[in-house]
Amino acid sequence: MERLKNKVAVITGGANGIGKATALKFIKEGAQVAIWDITKEKGEEAAKELGSDTKFYQVDTTSFEQVEKAAQQTYQDFGKIDILINNAGITQDATLAKMTIEQWQKVLDVNLNGVFFCTKAISPFMVEQACGRIVNASSVVGVYGNFGQTNYVATKAGVIGMTKTWAKELGRKGITVNAIAPGFIATEMVKSIPEKVINMLEGKTPLGRLGQPEEIANAYAFLASDEASFISGTTLNVDGAVTI
Ligand SMILES: NC(=O)c1ccc[n+]([C@@H]2O[C@H](COP(=O)([O-])OP(=O)(O)OC[C@H]3O[C@@H](n4cnc5c(N)ncnc54)[C@H](O)[C@@H]3O)[C@@H](O)[C@H]2O)c1
Question: Transmembrane residues, as ranges (predicted)?
């Protein structure tokens, strides 16, 4: 089944983890993929692995200048941009008492400014062609809060707000905007969590395990496909029921 045949997708943070699994899924579904990532080596490696329908662009999504340049270059290379997956994100955890201003600011820069910059730079191409799909990475902690993650939770809650706002602003232009809220997924991001906390999280998850990056990639692919044509402004939990 090639649900994304002839579509061009930009996937931020596509060099690693969920983003890389998403790039692979999109290629299998027939899309052409532009991986935007700050990490050159891993990005080039991923693009090589995924083959000729993938191209890597080194982009720091916290720089609007770099984002605008990459958007122009991607449009020039592929001739259009149909899908934007705002997936790049980071954590820098600490309790409120211990969190530094730098930690607060850095996470806001990547997880909030980056999402705003990419959408601002790419949505005009979608408006011009009167169709497009934008999917943003939120998190279950953006809805429920989490100990030691003031900065990250603020950004992931903010992403849900931006998703709803853009769904309203861009709907009439033929663009759907949705978010996914993953639970705890086995990537580098989660590997930094101590083993006893991972065991506790697995215990709290009705499905009894962490999620796999491919399971988030499947949700991104669905929301980016024509099958999701009347879904907009929603946040889809992909979390093994950890939040119920
Ligand atoms: N792993 C989880 O359990 C989990 C849970 C909920 C939400 N999420 C969200 O899913 C998304 C992907 O997470 P992941 O676990 O795959 O993370 P990851 O750390 O494995 O990969 C993140 C990617 O983003 C890139 N990146 C970081 N800063 C960037 C920048 N400024 N510009 C461009 N690229 C940048 C990194 O180089 C990396 O390739 C993130 O937004 C994350 O917050 C993850």
Answer: none
- The SS3 of residue 133 is strand
pLDDT digits (tens, 9 = 90+) for 91-149: 999 999 999 999 999 999 999 999 999 999 999 999 999 999 999 999 999 999 999 99
From the CA of 184, give the closest atom in ligand 1.
3
Which of the residues 57, 75, 144, 152 is marked catalytic?
152
Contact residues for 64 (Cβ-Cβ < 8 A; gap 6+) = 117, 120, 121
Question: For residue range 26-57, what is the model confidence (pLDDT) as tens digits?
Answer: 999 999 999 999 999 999 999 999 999 999 99
How far does residue 192's CA lie from ligand 1's centre (Å)? Answer: 13
Q: All domains of the chain, ordered by start, with CATH?
A: 8-235 (3.40.50.720)
**Pocket flag, ligand 1, residue 61 (CB < 6 Å):** yes
Closest among 197, 236, 181 to 93, alpha carbons compared: 197
pTM above threshold 0.85 = yes
CA dist., res. 243 & res. 235, Å (int): 13
Q: Is 57 a catalytic residue?
A: no
Residues 51 and 129: their CA atoms lie apart, in Å, by: 27
Q: Is 87 in the pocket of ligand 1 (CB under 6 A)?
A: yes
